[in-house]
Design a protein that fits this description.
About 35% of the residues lie in helices and about 25% in strands. It is an alpha+beta fold and about 300 residues long. A hairpin with a 4-residue loop joins strand 3 and strand 4. The protein is rod-shaped.
Protein backbone atom coordinates (compact mmCIF):
# COMPACT_ATOMS: atom_id res chain seq x y z
CA UNK A 1 0.00 0.00 0.00
CA UNK A 2 1.38 3.37 -0.96
CA UNK A 3 2.44 5.62 1.96
CA UNK A 4 0.15 8.43 0.80
CA UNK A 5 -2.93 6.30 1.21
CA UNK A 6 -2.29 5.53 4.96
CA UNK A 7 -4.78 6.93 7.54
CA UNK A 8 -2.92 9.35 9.82
CA UNK A 9 -5.66 9.54 12.53
CA UNK A 10 -4.99 7.58 15.80
CA UNK A 11 -7.05 4.48 16.32
CA UNK A 12 -10.01 4.71 18.68
CA UNK A 13 -8.04 3.07 21.48
CA UNK A 14 -5.56 6.01 21.67
CA UNK A 15 -8.10 8.83 21.45
CA UNK A 16 -7.57 11.52 24.21
CA UNK A 17 -11.11 12.83 24.62
CA UNK A 18 -11.75 16.57 24.44
CA UNK A 19 -9.00 18.79 23.22
CA UNK A 20 -6.68 20.69 25.53
CA UNK A 21 -8.24 24.02 24.64
CA UNK A 22 -11.71 22.85 25.51
CA UNK A 23 -10.45 21.48 28.80
CA UNK A 24 -8.79 24.81 29.62
CA UNK A 25 -11.96 26.71 28.93
CA UNK A 26 -14.11 24.33 30.97
CA UNK A 27 -11.86 24.28 33.98
CA UNK A 28 -11.36 28.03 33.83
CA UNK A 29 -15.09 28.56 33.83
CA UNK A 30 -15.47 26.07 36.70
CA UNK A 31 -12.78 27.83 38.74
CA UNK A 32 -14.40 31.18 38.13
CA UNK A 33 -17.77 29.79 39.13
CA UNK A 34 -16.38 28.27 42.32
CA UNK A 35 -14.67 31.53 43.25
CA UNK A 36 -17.81 33.54 42.75
CA UNK A 37 -19.94 30.94 44.55
CA UNK A 38 -17.50 30.76 47.47
CA UNK A 39 -17.42 34.52 47.73
CA UNK A 40 -21.18 34.89 47.67
CA UNK A 41 -22.41 31.71 49.34
CA UNK A 42 -19.30 30.35 51.19
CA UNK A 43 -19.95 26.86 49.93
CA UNK A 44 -16.35 25.73 50.56
CA UNK A 45 -16.24 26.67 54.25
CA UNK A 46 -17.35 23.23 55.55
CA UNK A 47 -14.88 21.57 53.22
CA UNK A 48 -12.08 23.77 54.46
CA UNK A 49 -12.97 23.05 58.07
CA UNK A 50 -12.99 19.31 57.40
CA UNK A 51 -9.65 19.45 55.59
CA UNK A 52 -8.13 21.60 58.39
CA UNK A 53 -9.39 19.14 61.00
CA UNK A 54 -7.93 16.21 59.13
CA UNK A 55 -4.60 17.95 58.52
CA UNK A 56 -4.21 19.36 62.10
CA UNK A 57 -2.37 16.30 63.51
CA UNK A 58 0.03 16.41 60.60
CA UNK A 59 0.60 20.14 61.14
CA UNK A 60 1.11 19.60 64.89
CA UNK A 61 3.66 16.85 64.26
CA UNK A 62 5.44 18.93 61.61
CA UNK A 63 5.69 21.95 63.95
CA UNK A 64 7.19 20.01 66.86
CA UNK A 65 10.81 20.12 65.59
CA UNK A 66 10.50 23.81 64.77
CA UNK A 67 9.08 24.61 68.23
CA UNK A 68 11.69 22.41 69.89
CA UNK A 69 14.48 24.31 68.16
CA UNK A 70 12.85 27.62 69.08
CA UNK A 71 12.37 26.58 72.71
CA UNK A 72 15.97 25.37 72.89
CA UNK A 73 17.24 28.67 71.54
CA UNK A 74 15.07 30.61 74.00
CA UNK A 75 16.20 28.36 76.87
CA UNK A 76 19.89 28.85 76.17
CA UNK A 77 19.36 32.57 75.64
CA UNK A 78 17.48 32.87 78.92
CA UNK A 79 20.14 30.76 80.65
CA UNK A 80 22.90 33.03 79.36
CA UNK A 81 20.88 36.08 80.41
CA UNK A 82 20.34 34.59 83.88
CA UNK A 83 24.05 33.88 84.22
CA UNK A 84 24.90 37.43 83.19
CA UNK A 85 22.36 38.78 85.67
CA UNK A 86 23.80 36.56 88.41
CA UNK A 87 27.34 37.72 87.68
CA UNK A 88 26.20 41.34 87.71
CA UNK A 89 24.34 40.74 90.99
CA UNK A 90 27.40 39.07 92.52
CA UNK A 91 29.63 41.96 91.44
CA UNK A 92 27.16 44.48 92.81
CA UNK A 93 26.87 42.54 96.06
CA UNK A 94 30.65 42.41 96.42
CA UNK A 95 30.85 46.14 95.75
CA UNK A 96 28.13 46.85 98.29
CA UNK A 97 29.85 44.58 100.82
CA UNK A 98 33.12 46.43 100.26
CA UNK A 99 31.34 49.74 100.69
CA UNK A 100 29.66 48.46 103.85
CA UNK A 101 33.04 47.43 105.25
CA UNK A 102 34.45 50.82 104.35
CA UNK A 103 31.49 52.51 106.01
CA UNK A 104 32.02 50.48 109.18
CA UNK A 105 35.74 51.25 109.16
CA UNK A 106 35.12 54.94 108.53
CA UNK A 107 32.47 55.03 111.27
CA UNK A 108 34.87 53.45 113.74
CA UNK A 109 37.66 55.80 112.68
CA UNK A 110 35.33 58.78 112.96
CA UNK A 111 34.27 57.72 116.44
CA UNK A 112 37.90 57.38 117.55
CA UNK A 113 38.78 60.76 116.08
CA UNK A 114 35.88 62.38 117.94
CA UNK A 115 37.04 60.83 121.20
CA UNK A 116 40.60 61.98 120.48
CA UNK A 117 39.35 65.52 119.88
CA UNK A 118 37.40 65.40 123.12
CA UNK A 119 40.52 64.20 124.94
CA UNK A 120 42.53 66.99 123.33
CA UNK A 121 40.04 69.55 124.65
CA UNK A 122 40.33 68.15 128.18
CA UNK A 123 44.14 68.15 128.18
CA UNK A 124 45.79 71.50 128.80
CA UNK A 125 49.09 70.29 127.35
CA UNK A 126 49.52 71.22 123.65
CA UNK A 127 50.01 68.38 121.20
CA UNK A 128 50.34 67.39 117.55
CA UNK A 129 48.03 64.94 115.79
CA UNK A 130 49.78 62.07 114.03
CA UNK A 131 48.98 58.80 112.29
CA UNK A 132 50.50 55.40 112.90
CA UNK A 133 52.22 54.18 109.73
CA UNK A 134 53.37 50.68 110.71
CA UNK A 135 54.78 48.58 113.52
CA UNK A 136 58.51 48.36 114.08
CA UNK A 137 60.25 45.43 112.43
CA UNK A 138 61.85 44.20 115.67
CA UNK A 139 59.66 41.35 117.01
CA UNK A 140 61.15 41.66 120.52
CA UNK A 141 60.02 45.24 121.05
CA UNK A 142 56.66 46.99 121.08
CA UNK A 143 57.16 50.04 118.91
CA UNK A 144 55.25 51.88 116.17
CA UNK A 145 56.27 54.49 113.60
CA UNK A 146 54.41 57.81 113.27
CA UNK A 147 54.15 60.01 110.18
CA UNK A 148 55.39 63.11 112.03
CA UNK A 149 59.02 63.86 112.84
CA UNK A 150 61.49 66.56 113.69
CA UNK A 151 60.29 68.91 110.95
CA UNK A 152 56.79 68.92 112.51
CA UNK A 153 58.11 69.70 115.98
CA UNK A 154 58.14 66.23 117.52
CA UNK A 155 60.59 65.90 120.40
CA UNK A 156 62.16 62.85 121.96
CA UNK A 157 60.51 61.91 125.24
CA UNK A 158 57.08 63.27 124.26
CA UNK A 159 54.12 61.25 125.57
CA UNK A 160 51.76 59.73 123.01
CA UNK A 161 48.06 59.15 123.72
CA UNK A 162 45.05 57.90 121.80
CA UNK A 163 41.36 58.34 122.52
CA UNK A 164 41.46 55.75 125.33
CA UNK A 165 44.63 56.60 127.22
CA UNK A 166 48.42 56.63 127.21
CA UNK A 167 49.89 54.72 124.28
CA UNK A 168 53.61 55.21 124.82
CA UNK A 169 56.51 57.65 124.53
CA UNK A 170 58.56 58.98 121.64
CA UNK A 171 62.01 57.43 121.95
CA UNK A 172 63.57 58.29 118.60
CA UNK A 173 62.92 61.19 116.23
CA UNK A 174 63.83 61.41 112.54
CA UNK A 175 63.27 64.33 110.18
CA UNK A 176 59.97 62.97 108.79
CA UNK A 177 58.99 60.09 111.10
CA UNK A 178 59.32 59.23 114.76
CA UNK A 179 59.47 56.03 116.78
CA UNK A 180 57.16 55.42 119.71
CA UNK A 181 57.81 52.80 122.37
CA UNK A 182 54.50 51.42 123.61
CA UNK A 183 53.62 51.10 127.27
CA UNK A 184 53.65 47.30 126.85
CA UNK A 185 57.33 47.23 125.89
CA UNK A 186 59.50 45.47 128.46
CA UNK A 187 61.83 48.47 128.71
CA UNK A 188 59.05 51.00 129.26
CA UNK A 189 58.06 52.26 132.71
CA UNK A 190 55.52 54.92 133.67
CA UNK A 191 54.64 56.35 137.11
CA UNK A 192 50.95 55.74 137.84
CA UNK A 193 48.40 56.62 140.47
CA UNK A 194 45.65 54.34 141.76
CA UNK A 195 42.53 56.49 141.49
CA UNK A 196 40.75 54.49 144.19
CA UNK A 197 43.40 54.61 146.90
CA UNK A 198 45.68 57.44 145.74
CA UNK A 199 48.75 55.21 146.05
CA UNK A 200 51.61 55.83 143.64
CA UNK A 201 53.54 53.10 141.91
CA UNK A 202 55.33 52.32 138.64
CA UNK A 203 53.82 50.28 135.81
CA UNK A 204 56.16 48.33 133.56
CA UNK A 205 55.65 46.64 130.21
CA UNK A 206 55.00 42.92 130.16
CA UNK A 207 58.36 41.10 130.26
CA UNK A 208 56.95 38.01 128.53
CA UNK A 209 57.58 37.43 124.85
CA UNK A 210 53.96 37.86 123.72
CA UNK A 211 53.52 41.28 125.39
CA UNK A 212 50.18 43.05 125.32
CA UNK A 213 49.87 43.78 129.07
CA UNK A 214 51.54 45.60 131.94
CA UNK A 215 52.39 44.88 135.54
CA UNK A 216 52.95 46.70 138.81
CA UNK A 217 56.27 45.71 140.30
CA UNK A 218 57.59 45.89 143.83
CA UNK A 219 54.13 46.18 145.40
CA UNK A 220 53.86 44.71 148.88
CA UNK A 221 51.83 41.56 149.27
CA UNK A 222 49.35 43.33 151.52
CA UNK A 223 49.03 46.42 149.30
CA UNK A 224 45.51 47.71 148.76
CA UNK A 225 45.16 46.81 145.08
CA UNK A 226 42.06 45.16 143.62
CA UNK A 227 41.03 43.99 140.15
CA UNK A 228 39.26 46.81 138.36
CA UNK A 229 41.34 49.62 139.86
CA UNK A 230 42.07 52.35 137.33
CA UNK A 231 45.67 53.53 137.05
CA UNK A 232 46.35 57.02 135.72
CA UNK A 233 49.50 59.04 135.19
CA UNK A 234 50.74 60.64 138.39
CA UNK A 235 52.65 63.46 136.70
CA UNK A 236 55.63 63.20 139.07
CA UNK A 237 58.03 62.23 136.30
CA UNK A 238 57.77 65.52 134.44
CA UNK A 239 56.87 63.74 131.21
CA UNK A 240 53.22 62.68 131.30
CA UNK A 241 50.45 65.10 132.27
CA UNK A 242 48.61 63.88 135.40
CA UNK A 243 45.26 62.14 135.14
CA UNK A 244 45.68 60.31 131.82
CA UNK A 245 44.28 56.72 131.87
CA UNK A 246 47.04 54.14 131.66
CA UNK A 247 45.73 50.70 132.62
CA UNK A 248 43.25 48.71 134.70
CA UNK A 249 44.20 46.06 137.21
CA UNK A 250 43.16 42.65 135.90
CA UNK A 251 44.69 40.13 138.27
CA UNK A 252 46.33 40.25 141.71
CA UNK A 253 48.35 37.26 142.94
CA UNK A 254 49.48 37.35 146.56
CA UNK A 255 52.10 34.67 147.08
CA UNK A 256 53.14 33.41 150.46
CA UNK A 257 56.69 32.67 149.34
CA UNK A 258 57.30 36.27 148.24
CA UNK A 259 56.91 39.60 149.92
CA UNK A 260 55.67 41.21 146.70
CA UNK A 261 52.36 40.72 144.91
CA UNK A 262 52.18 39.96 141.22
CA UNK A 263 49.77 42.45 139.68
CA UNK A 264 48.80 42.24 135.98
CA UNK A 265 47.20 45.21 134.24
CA UNK A 266 45.51 45.77 130.90
CA UNK A 267 46.42 48.95 128.99
CA UNK A 268 43.57 51.34 128.33
CA UNK A 269 45.00 52.49 125.00
CA UNK A 270 44.65 50.46 121.82
CA UNK A 271 48.23 49.22 121.73
CA UNK A 272 47.43 46.71 118.98
CA UNK A 273 45.13 48.78 116.77
CA UNK A 274 45.79 52.49 117.25
CA UNK A 275 45.59 54.54 114.06
CA UNK A 276 45.36 58.20 115.02
CA UNK A 277 47.24 59.50 118.06
CA UNK A 278 48.11 62.73 119.79
CA UNK A 279 51.75 63.56 120.57
CA UNK A 280 51.93 65.81 123.64
CA UNK A 281 54.81 68.02 124.56
CA UNK A 282 56.62 66.96 127.76
CA UNK A 283 55.40 68.90 130.77
CA UNK A 284 59.00 69.39 131.85
CA UNK A 285 59.25 72.21 129.34
CA UNK A 286 56.23 73.91 130.90
CA UNK A 287 57.45 73.73 134.49
CA UNK A 288 59.19 76.74 136.02
CA UNK A 289 62.97 76.41 136.24
CA UNK A 290 64.48 75.10 139.41
CA UNK A 291 65.63 77.76 141.84
CA UNK A 292 69.37 78.33 141.94
CA UNK A 293 71.09 76.96 145.06
CA UNK A 294 71.71 79.58 147.68
CA UNK A 295 75.32 80.59 148.24
CA UNK A 296 76.80 79.48 151.51
CA UNK A 297 77.60 82.22 154.08
CA UNK A 298 81.05 83.66 153.76
CA UNK A 299 82.01 82.77 157.33
CA UNK A 300 81.21 79.07 156.85
CA UNK A 301 83.78 77.09 155.00
CA UNK A 302 83.37 73.82 153.19
CA UNK A 303 82.76 70.99 155.54
CA UNK A 304 80.84 73.18 158.06
CA UNK A 305 83.91 74.61 159.78
CA UNK A 306 84.78 78.25 160.23
Amino acid sequence: MPLGTLDRNPPPFFKQGPSALSKLMVFSALALFLMVADTRFRISQPLRAAVATVLYPLQWAALRPVLAVRWSAEYFESLASAQRSEEAARAKLAQQSQRANQVEQLTLENSRLRKLLELRERIATPGIAAEVLYDAADPYTRKVILDKGMTQGIEAGSPVVDESGVLGQVTRVHPLVSEVTLVTDREQAIPVLNTRTGARSVAYGDPSSHGGSMELRFMAGNADVQPGDLLTTSGVDGVYPPGLPVAKVEKVERRADSGFARISCKPQALVEGARHVLVLFPISGQLPPRPAPEDAPAGIKKGGRK
